[in-house]
Write a structure and sequence with these properties.
The complex is a heterodimer of chains A (258) and B (394). Helix content of chain A is 42%, strand content 13%. Chain A is an alpha+beta fold and 258 residues long. Chain A has a 4-stranded antiparallel beta sheet with strand order 2-1-3-4, covered by helices on one side. In chain A, strand 1 and strand 2 (164-168) form a beta hairpin. Chain B is mainly α and 394 residues long. Chain B has helices at 20-36, 44-66, 73-95, 99-103, 122-127, 131-150, 154-171, 178-190, 201-207, 221-239, 254-259, 276-291, 295-304, 311-319, 321-339, 345-350, 359-370, 375-380, and strands at 69-70, 218-219. Chain B has a two-stranded antiparallel ribbon with strand order 1-2. The chains are: A alpha+beta (258), B mainly alpha (394). Chains A and B meet through helix 2, helix 4, strand 1, helix 8 and helix 9 of A and helix 1, helix 2, helix 7, helix 8 and strand 2 of B.
Chain lengths: 258, 394
């Protein structure tokens, strides 16, 4: 599918054409170049038809892949924020005469999302090798998790006296150790918890942070990484001062061998 | 720069929107078929002929649409911006000393779960899961991104970059974000496209000039697919925003919460509580922008066929829907880049925006931008009027 010069195609306004192209076949239409021979025309038409068919197939497959809703599970829907959403939807549906309790809605959502996701997976199965090799997809969940309860990571080190010092905390100008590395997007993905908990690379990440601090400062005896869960109050909302600690990981400096 | 829709020079000669001469002949046949079917004519056979005739015409229009040709300027800009975004991201990884950390197996101090029994990707399966293999894959990815950016073996570079980026994604799936997937989708299109036909080393090697002649015509369908990709991206993202902070029930509080998320915010945004209604407006506009994305192809079509009648067409063109949509999108991503630490995400999406513009508009914009530099610079940009004028769809 190489680019073609207008000379090869005929009829297109040349470089520097300053007026809009005339309507096809209309008055002032540029004179058509000599038509290609019959065989070449048929081949070109075959190529165009094949291309159009392949694009239709690609759009169909990508359209199925774009079905946006991942399967729901009973565990995911049991979370308090999801329970609130279910209650909200139950109330909304009740207003239009579709009475379903939040539990019934949850069961329906789990069943239907599973069925639809299964259908999507079956339809895409023949094309899975393509998606695997290119690691492409069409499900785009951008900024879905916008909630009042958040985590804030703390990286702390312990010295010989046993005292803990805060080394890194997001948006804390006094605790910026390793900040440029930790805040790089792929690195953050390793430590930033999802709603379901930490991700697979979290433990190797803590080991890397600990080793980096051990290498920088011989006085560091241990490194601790943990997440502080806190509440973001909306304006006019009573702040919830209670915080809690989660996903704590501790690494001690390895003892030197004899 | 105003936008022009997916209406470009058709492939057929003489300005007729058809696939070469053969399709023109097909169109004639189609027209003949229509003429043989009187409107509202009686008889089952006539109705059937009408249905089949309609299907045939639709199929011909489909073939003709995807066979359209245009100057490759828009695709070349997408190629350059996509490659620059990816190369900048990889350069940042290298500068931070994170190549071995992100993609080496955990046994060698990295974050990857790959191990000899479960290599996770083909590169590790062939060469063994090690930091050295990870560095080699990274090196290939960075080199191919640079080659793609300068347009050296553009298609091959796009393919190699696509595969290398996918390998890195397999090695550390959690570190592979949505923007990486989006850019790989764009790379699939770029490696099948004529994006290297202008503003590239390839163009210099082939024609002795960095820029393609203003009248060069190349397949336009890759650009249309990139427009479709943007539409799917935004609409899918908008459709999934069902939780209450994204709705009136939750007071459109999503943007406020996101700006106050310490893991993403670039600054302390607690002050946004004082301008809370502004964040609510921003949340609403984000939803409106994303969920209106399916109207973009229609708006592009109406802009390209503005001389035709129709109330809806007039409404779209008078309301400048497309210009407002593009402006909102660009502003949205630029604000994201300033307020949230999202790495290449805003730039990666914006890299696809040139696909929304017809090459003629891009060349006209460049010509205007270069006016102070003199006539030679304008000629390099494709002359005062840019490349061949786009023609409306059939």
């Amino acid at each position: 599918m190489s680019a073609e010069s207008p000379e090869g195609r005929g009829g297109e306004p040349g470089p520097g054409a300053s007026s809009p192209a005339p309507a096809p076949g209309g008055p002032g239409a540029p004179a058509a170049a000599p038509e290609p021979r019959g065989q070449a025309r048929r081949r070109r038409l075959r190529v165009a038809r094949l291309r159009a068919a392949l694009i239709a197939l690609a759009l169909l497959v990508q359209g199925v892949a774009a079905y946006p809703f991942p399967p729901l599970t009973t565990e995911r829907l049991a979370r308090p924020d999801r329970q609130r959403e279910l209650a909200r939807w139950s109330e909304r549906l009740g207003r239009v005469g579709l009475r379903r309790s939040p539990d019934e809605l949850a069961a329906l959502a789990v069943a239907w999302s599973g069925r639809l996701d299964g259908a999507r997976a079956r339809a895409l199965a023949p094309f899975q090798p393509y998606f695997d090799v290119t690691r492409t997809d069409q499900r785009w969940g951008l900024f879905l998790e916008a909630h009042a309860h958040r985590y804030r990571m703390h990286v702390e080190s312990q010295d010989a006296s046993g005292a803990w010092t805060l080394r890194y905390r997001p948006l804390d100008p006094a605790a910026r150790e390793l900040a440029s590395q930790l805040e790089y997007r792929r690195m953050r993905a390793a430590w930033n918890p999802r709603s379901q908990g930490t991700r697979e690379p979290y433990k190797p990440f803590v080991s890397w942070v600990a080793n980096a601090l051990f290498a920088r400062e011989p006085g560091v005896r241990a490194v601790r990484v943990r997440m502080e869960r806190f509440h973001i109050p909306r304006p006019g909302e009573a702040p919830d001062p209670e915080t809690s600690w989660h996903f704590e990981e501790l690494r001690r400096r390895p003892r030197r061998g004899p | 720069m105003s936008a022009e829709g997916p209406a470009s020079a058709p492939a057929g000669g003489g300005g007729s929107a058809a696939v070469g001469g053969a399709a023109s002949a097909g169109d004639k046949a189609s027209a003949g078929g229509s003429a043989a079917t009187p409107a509202g004519g009686g008889g089952r056979g006539t109705a059937r002929r009408g249905v089949f005739g309609g299907a045939r015409r639709a199929a011909r229009a489909w073939v003709s649409f995807w066979d359209r040709r245009e100057h490759p300027a828009s695709l070349a800009l997408v190629r350059i911006f996509v490659a620059a975004t990816i190369a900048a991201d990889y350069a940042q990884v290298a500068a931070l000393g994170l190549v071995g950390v992100l993609w080496a197996p955990a046994a060698e101090g990295g974050l990857s779960a790959a191990r000899p029994g479960a290599p996770l990707c083909q590169a590790f399966a062939w060469f063994g899961p090690s930091a050295a293999t990870a560095r080699a894959v990274f090196g290939v990815a960075l080199a191919s991104a640079l080659c793609l950016g300068v347009g050296l073996f553009s298609r091959a570079s796009a393919l190699v970059l696509l595969l290398a980026s996918a390998q890195l994604g397999h090695i550390l799936p959690d570190g592979d974000r949505g923007i990486d997937t989006l850019l790989r989708n764009a790379l699939v299109v770029l490696c099948l496209s004529p994006a290297g036909e202008t503003w590239s080393v390839d163009a210099r090697r082939r024609r002795g000039a960095w820029s393609a002649p203003a009248g060069l015509l190349a397949p336009a369908w890759p650009r249309y697919l990139l427009v479709a990709q943007l539409v799917v991206l935004y609409f899918s993202a908008g459709a999934q925003k069902l939780s209450s902070p994204w709705s009136a029930a939750g007071g459109y509080s999503a943007l406020y919460y996101l700006l106050n998320h310490p893991h993403y915010a670039t600054f302390d945004f607690r002050w946004t509580g004082r301008v809370y209604p502004l964040t609510q407006f921003g949340t609403f506009m984000t939803l409106l922008f994303e969920q209106s994305a399916p109207l973009v192809p229609l708006a592009l079509y109406y802009r390209a066929t503005r001389e035709r009648p129709g109330r809806l067409r007039r409404l779209f063109n008078r309301s400048r829907f497309f210009a407002a949509w593009v402006f909102t999108g660009a502003a949205f991503h630029l604000l994201l880049a300033v307020t949230m630490n999202l790495g290449i995400f805003p730039w990666g999406v914006l890299a696809l925006y040139p696909a929304l513009f017809a090459p003629r508009e891009i060349m006209a914009f460049l010509s205007r931008a270069r006016r102070p530099l003199g006539p030679r610079a304008r000629a390099d940009a494709g002359g005062p009027a840019g490349p061949a004028a786009s023609t409306p769809l059939t």
